[in-house]
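Possible regression after last week's pipeline update?

I re-ran a chain I had predicted before the update to compare outputs. Posting the input and the new output here so someone can diff against the archived version. Not blocking, just want to make sure nothing changed silently.
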Amino acid sequence: MLRGRGDAVLRFTGAAVVLGRADGEHHIPLEAIESVHPEGRSVEVELIALADAEPAVYRVEDVSEAAATAFADAVEAALPDEVVDVDGSALVTHRPPAVPVLALDVFLGVAGRLEYALAFWIAFVVTAVGGLLAGDMGRDLHRMWRLPRYGITVTAESWHKAYGSWVYRYRDTTGVLHTYKTRSVLASKELSYDPRDPKVATHHEEAPARCGMAFITLLGCGMAGGGLFGIGRLVLEVLKG
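New output (post-update):
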């Protein structure tokens, strides 16, 4: 078992790889896996993809380098000898973290009032959406600030469009080819990547776009904070009787 950044936990059950994160548990059967490979203190589980499609990748960071290598070797040794031409993503099942959430909702409804239980779900959805907005936009903003300054800038070439995203390709200093996805066509083909982890890259955005991203990040923080505050108030109301 590997424990990574945040609350990420990667386990190998013998028949599947299970990734536990804040968004729930992802069950990845061996039949869906193309390869598992360590990169320093991170591990990537790459799924089988259909022809010309970008493979889905599950990544866990900040693990022990020795443990990452041992984990990858164990899973690789258990992979089927013949790779089936399937969409690996379709074989992955996701189990949301429903048990604690449902338990809290039941507590509010039973110990409090029915409207408390209904209000909880509104606050929970607001918190979840806000957290996703803040997390995604905040991560992208941080990369746009850090990688052009401390990373390596290269010229990328347009490859193809897949699932509504434009895919670009670039090579790191060792000649390894990587892909980069974006929802919009890049005005400039320059990408900056992390020399410690060349698969992590970003493109340049003008100031107005970055301001918009910063606004969405702040909005997400406000939504998440407001939702958590609402849940806390509901719990306090019930505890006070």
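Follow-up from reviewer: compared with the archived run. Residues 114-150 form the longest helix (37 residues). Marking as no regression found.
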